[in-house]
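Worked example 3 (structure in, sequence out).
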């Protein structure tokens, strides 16, 4: 029966503010994994990204097993993806707010106002409903490049 050790990866940053931050996060995970498993080091940043998105890393030795929880890094990657690849959620013009704990509303500040959405019985404005998945022609994402584009440079 092996000895099982569980560790949690703690990112050096709490939030992702820029494209450089996501690159730094992936490099830091890569370096951290290499420090505990120098024989099976990650060969690329893309491989490291896939590992982060899986949520964990498992190192098997004959008598011991090391499990590294990467969920905090995964949350940061998910945040970046949501703000670089999504539709209205990733756009600077997309505004969402709560009028009550269980009431969520969203509208496009480029074409609508908060009053427009509150004057209807809808949670999402017509414009948001039309463009929520891919965004509109005026989309202005919070982050302009995908993670893969950043990591491949």
């Amino acid at each position: 029966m092996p000895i099982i050790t569980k560790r949690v990866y703690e990112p050096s940053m709490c939030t992702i503010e820029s494209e450089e931050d996501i690159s730094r996060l992936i490099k830091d995970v890569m370096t951290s994994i290499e420090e505990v498993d120098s024989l099976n080091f990650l060969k690329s940043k893309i491989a490291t990204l896939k590992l982060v998105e899986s949520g964990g890393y498992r190192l098997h030795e004959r008598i011991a097993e090391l499990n590294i929880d990467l969920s905090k890094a995964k949350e940061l990657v998910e945040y970046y993806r949501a703000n670089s690849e999504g539709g209205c959620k990733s756009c600077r013009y997309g505004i969402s707010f709560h009028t009550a704990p269980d009431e969520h509303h969203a509208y496009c500040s480029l074409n609508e106002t908060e009053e427009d959405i509150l004057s209807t019985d809808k949670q999402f404005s017509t414009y948001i409903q039309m463009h929520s998945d891919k965004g509109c022609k005026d989309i202005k994402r919070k982050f302009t490049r995908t993670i893969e584009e950043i990591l491949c440079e």
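Notes: The beta strands are 3-8, 56-60, 64-69, 94-100, 103-108. The mean pLDDT is 87.
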